[in-house]
């Protein structure tokens, strides 16, 4: 069988073989394609505007990726599609608003961020203890969990609306300061978002790969029962997963709030692009989420050079649907039954 | 200091007014039709369609565009709009039903959001955020005729929307009966077999893929019909009426009435909308935004508690719930 397949592949023309090998490297193909689009855009729209939009894309992409990494970990380990994850972002943003919102307590945003991350992590842990763990013990089905997460999303979003109303609110950031380099000008807050996003996500990727906790998390993601039988304290690992997922969601929410404005729907509106990043990057893959987040952010921003800005959000959905149709296992994932 | 009993309480006059019940009845009837599609998908085929609001949008917009743009007769526009929506459903279903259940949920909600964003941004065709109106002249004539009958029956000055109430429930109950009936045919039994064990159904030579496609396409048609009634009730079609939350409300109706029970849908819808609309009249000393937020907090809590303690709903059968995966 093996030998036959090998002999057959030798008979293929070089072009066929190249195409076959490309099919095994969808990440390379995707990056090459996006790179090509970038070059074409530079040719038609000029380097300046392409670079400017790419920088904005890097910043929104970092937020997507930060939002996605928590969702992807929970999805991978608990097989839970958490529709409330977007509202975790909103929750984090409003937690920071309590301390560092404009005309609020005037606490520096750094402390506001730490507080928001802690509170959102606490929210994640509380919900795990009070809701998800008992439901898992009862062997709840996917529809039950899906609808519970939707119910939870409604509760969080409308509790926020109940307390703070629907009016737009702002975090206390200096959004006029800019940084100039290489002839490009970028808002300081956007640069902070990019740097924070990259550091956190790369650290998470390394953590998953090299630390004991990371290895355990990946073991759970592969097979929860098997991990449990081999002596891993799964409920502790799951708790850590929620702490990370909540913390990153809180961070993403604050960064989103710092670059835009706060309103109760802000997180839910980001949920589908975040799903796109999760699927594109492959379930449970932090580096995948980083790459896919950046890709999606840049592609969406570049799209504004070609089509009207009002179509920006729709591009995210188009990417999501295309990925689901063409490659549901993501550009890094292995072909499994999906 | 006001009397505490007048501060917290429900003003009961609303519940005795015919206007309130007509309004609730129209929404409940519309959502019965809407949720019948979800019942077929979720209860009888085991596919988690989260894009029903998108199908409703395609139906309502197709009708409105056909009538206002091309001048096609309103009654003729309805079957065409249903056909368009079914075609759209097929286009969504073809890739979606190949996906795992959770991915299908994400894919369908994304498709619905794509429709809404298209409606919001393709201003020339859809009127953008202002939407479309002025498609319901033909309906008004029928409505007046029915009002005339009501008057000849001795009801002087009948409620303006009462004819719509009558028609929506005649249609909703007829569709419920049809769905209930076809579920008892061999076709319906195969549908349930696909839900229980797709591989087994396939091993018996049934084309599970085709059955799932049919399930989603029929749901799309039901969504389109619900969209017509929504459009007639509001008298305008705007993108905001098709937010994902309206699919979620459909799911609340579905699980309240019970999984795998078509007649439960109507009962669930009546109870759900009576409570949700009744909550508007809570007399709390808070702003309207807060009351509206409170209503949806309660919807969310109800969903969580129902799923935790009675996932099969009021009239559902637990053994018919898709629990695995």
What are the secondary-structure elements of chain A, in order, as H or E? HHHHHHHEEHHHHHHH
Subunit organisation of the chains? heterodimer
State the end-to-end CA separation of chain A: 26 Å
Strand content of chain B: under 5%
* Uncertain stretches of chain B: 1-8
Widest β-sheet, arrangement of strands of chain B: 1-2
The residue-averaged pLDDT of chain B reads: 87
Chain-wise SSE layout:
The complex is a heterodimer of chains A (338) and B (325).
Chain A: H1 2-11, H2 14-23, H3 26-45, H4 47-78, H5 85-100, H6 109-137, H7 142-164, E1 178-181, E2 184-187, H8 188-210, H9 212-222, H10 224-229, H11 234-259, H12 266-281, H13 286-306, H14 312-326
Helix pairs in contact in A: 3-4, 3-13, 4-8, 4-9, 4-11, 4-12, 4-13, 5-6, 5-7, 5-11, 5-12, 6-11, 8-9, 8-11, 8-13, 9-11, 12-13, 12-14, 13-14
Chain B: H1 4-7, H2 13-16, H3 18-45, H4 52-70, H5 74-96, H6 101-121, H7 123-126, E1 132-133, H8 137-152, H9 162-182, H10 186-196, H11 198-203, H12 208-234, E2 236-237, H13 244-257, H14 262-278, H15 288-309
Helix pairs in contact in B: 3-9, 3-12, 3-13, 3-14, 4-5, 4-6, 4-12, 5-12, 9-14, 13-14, 13-15
Features:
heterodimer; A: 338 residues; mainly alpha; two-stranded antiparallel sheet; 14 helices; 76% helix; 2% strand; globular; B: 325 residues; two-stranded antiparallel ribbon; 15 helices; 73% helix; 1% strand; disordered N terminus
Explain this structure to me?
The complex is a heterodimer of chains A (338) and B (325). Chain A is mainly alpha-helical and 338 residues long. Chain A is 76% helix and 2% strand. Chain A is built from 14 helices and two strands. In chain A, helix 4 packs antiparallel against helix 13 (286-306), helix 12 (266-281) crosses helix 13 and helix 12 runs parallel beside helix 14. The model of chain A has no long low-confidence stretch (mean pLDDT 83). Chain B has helices spanning 4-7, 13-16, 18-45, 52-70, 74-96, 101-121, 123-126, 137-152, 162-182, 186-196, 198-203, 208-234, 244-257, 262-278, 288-309; strands at residues 132-133, 236-237. Chain B has a two-stranded antiparallel ribbon with strand order 1-2. Chain B is globular and about 60 Å long. Mean pLDDT of chain B is 87; it is low at 1-8. The interface between A and B is large, with 46 and 46 residues.
């Amino acid at each position: 069988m093996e030998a036959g397949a090998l002999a057959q592949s030798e008979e293929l023309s070089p072009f066929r073989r190249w195409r076959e090998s490309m099919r095994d490297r969808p990440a390379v193909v995707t990056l090459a394609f996006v790179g090509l689009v970038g070059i074409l855009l530079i040719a038609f729209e000029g380097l300046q505007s392409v670079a400017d939009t790419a920088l904005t894309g890097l910043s929104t992409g970092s937020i997507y990726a930060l939002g996605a990494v928590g969702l992807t970990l929970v999805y991978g380990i608990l097989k839970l599609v958490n529709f409330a994850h977007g509202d975790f972002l909103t929750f984090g943003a409003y937690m920071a608003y309590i301390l560092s919102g404009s005309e609020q307590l005037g606490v520096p945003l750094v402390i506001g961020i730490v507080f928001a991350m802690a509170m959102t992590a606490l929210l994640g842990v509380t919900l795990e203890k009070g809701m998800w763990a008992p439901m898992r013990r009862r062997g709840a089905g996917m529809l039950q969990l899906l609808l519970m997460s939707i119910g939870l999303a409604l509760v969080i979003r409308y509790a926020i609306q109940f307390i703070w109303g629907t009016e737009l609110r702002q975090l206390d950031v200096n959004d006029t300061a800019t940084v100039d380099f290489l002839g490009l000008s970028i808002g300081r807050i956007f640069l902070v978002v990019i740097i924070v996003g990259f550091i956190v996500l790369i650290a998470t990727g390394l953590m998953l790969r090299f630390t004991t906790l990371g290895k355990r998390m990946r073991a759970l993601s592969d097979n929860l029962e098997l991990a449990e039988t081999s002596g891993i304290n799964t409920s502790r690992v799951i708790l850590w997963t929620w702490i990370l997922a909540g913390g990153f969601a809180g961070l993403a929410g604050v960064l989103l709030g710092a670059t835009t404005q706060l309103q109760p729907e802000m997180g839910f509106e980001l949920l589908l692009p975040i799903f796109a990043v999760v699927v594109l990057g492959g379930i449970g893959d932090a580096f995948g989420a980083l790459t896919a987040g950046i890709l999606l952010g840049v592609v969406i921003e570049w799209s504004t050079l070609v089509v009207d800005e009002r179509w920006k959000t729709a591009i995210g959905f188009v990417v999501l649907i295309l990925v689901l149709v063409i490659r549901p296992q993501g550009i890094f994932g292995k072909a499994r039954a999906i | 200091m006001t009397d505490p009993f007048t501060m917290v309480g429900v003003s009961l006059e609303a519940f005795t007014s015919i206007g309130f019940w007509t309004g609730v009845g129209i929404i409940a009837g519309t959502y019965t039709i809407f949720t019948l599609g979800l019942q077929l998908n979720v209860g009888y085929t085991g596919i988690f369609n989260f894009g029903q609001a998108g199908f409703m949008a395609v139906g309502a917009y197709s009708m409105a565009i056909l009538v206002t743009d091309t001048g096609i007769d309103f009654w003729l526009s309805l079957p065409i709009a249903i056909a368009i929506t079914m075609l759209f459903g097929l286009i969504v279903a073809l890739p979606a039903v190949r996906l795992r259940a959770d991915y299908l949920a994400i894919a369908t909600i994304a498709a619905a959001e794509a429709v809404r964003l298209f409606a919001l941004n393709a201003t020339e065709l859809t009127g953008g955020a202002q939407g479309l109106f002025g498609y319901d002249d033909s309906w008004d004539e029928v409505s007046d005729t029915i009002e005339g009958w009501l008057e000849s029956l001795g009801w002087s000055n009948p409620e303006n929307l009462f004819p719509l109430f009558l028609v929506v429930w005649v249609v909703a109950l007829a569709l419920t009966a049809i769905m209930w009936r076809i579920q008892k045919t061999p076709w319906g039994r195969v549908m349930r077999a696909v839900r229980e064990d797709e591989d087994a159904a396939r091993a018996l030579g049934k084309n599970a893929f085709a059955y799932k496609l049919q399930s989603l396409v029929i749901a799309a048609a039901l969504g389109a019909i619900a969209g017509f009634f929504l459009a007639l009730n509001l008298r305008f079609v705007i993108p905001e009426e098709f937010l994902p939350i309206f699919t979620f409300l459909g799911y609340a109706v579905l699980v309240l009435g019970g999984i795998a029970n078509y007649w439960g849908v109507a009962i669930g819808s009546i109870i759900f909308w009576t409570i949700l609309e009744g909550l508007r009249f809570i007399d709390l000393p808070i702003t309207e935004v807060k009351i509206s937020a409170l209503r949806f907090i309660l919807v969310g809590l109800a969903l969580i508690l129902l799923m935790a303690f009675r996932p099969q709903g009021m009239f559902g059968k637990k053994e018919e719930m898709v629990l695995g995966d």
